[in-house]
Write a structure and sequence with these properties.
A hairpin with a 5-residue loop joins strand 2 and strand 3. The relative contact order is 0.16. A 7-stranded mixed beta sheet has the order 1-2-3-4-5-7-6. By secondary structure, the protein is an alpha+beta fold. The protein is globular, with a radius of gyration of 15 Å. The termini are far apart. It contains 5 helices and 7 strands, in the order E-H-H-H-E-E-E-H-E-H-E-E. It has a single domain, classed as Gcn5-related N-acetyltransferase (GNAT) (Aminopeptidase).
Length: about 170
């Protein structure tokens, strides 16, 4: 048995990251609708590229593993790319934990590792776009000191058929 942990992923684990992301999206109605529009193979190619050649050194993927060493979650972090972001603002751009592993501490461990990574890279503030009606994630973040900053957006597929309302949360991490 291994202790549950957070670490950097290996390129060969990109397919596992894709499976975790698709499983996490599948239980969120707003995101589940988009799954039909996203090819798993293309997702794996994108995650492989993110692991092997991120656009900057401050873009990182982290994976959460259970006591068997299996990947049960992941997060993507990097500089905040919002138009109103300061250079010292980082972002958590993706965060997924397998639904059958929710509540086992992986969410907290992964969130704290993401914030620690951003802080180590010199960021002083972090943002996180969350589905506006995702009460589970919003509660986790609110309890950890994240607050809405008033920004909202809507994302979706190219057809406009699938739309998801998002709210931006932020916290000071310096």
């Amino acid at each position: 048995m291994h202790p549950a942990s957070v670490r950097l992923p290996l390129p060969a684990e990109a397919a596992v990251i894709t499976r975790v992301q698709r499983a996490a999206w599948a239980v969120r109605p707003a995101m589940a609708e988009m799954l039909t529009e996203v090819d798993p193979e293309e997702m794996t190619i994108a995650w492989t590229a993110a692991i092997l050649s991120p656009p900057l050194a401050t873009y990182r993927l982290l994976v959460a593993t259970d006591t068997n060493g299996q990947i049960v979650g992941f997060t993507a972090v990097g500089p905040c790319e919002d138009e109103d972001a300061e250079p010292t603002t980082g972002a958590i751009t993706e965060f997924c934990v397998l639904p059958d592993h929710w509540g086992a501490g992986h969410e907290d461990r992964l969130m704290h590792a993401a914030v620690d990574t951003l802080r180590a890279d010199g960021f002083e503030r972090a943002t996180w776009w969350v589905i506006s009606n995702d009460d589970i994630t919003r509660t986790l973040l609110n309890e950890s000191g994240w607050e809405p900053d008033g920004a909202h957006q809507e994302i979706g597929d190219e057809t406009g058929k699938h739309r998801v309302k998002m709210v931006r949360l932020h916290t000071v991490i310096d």
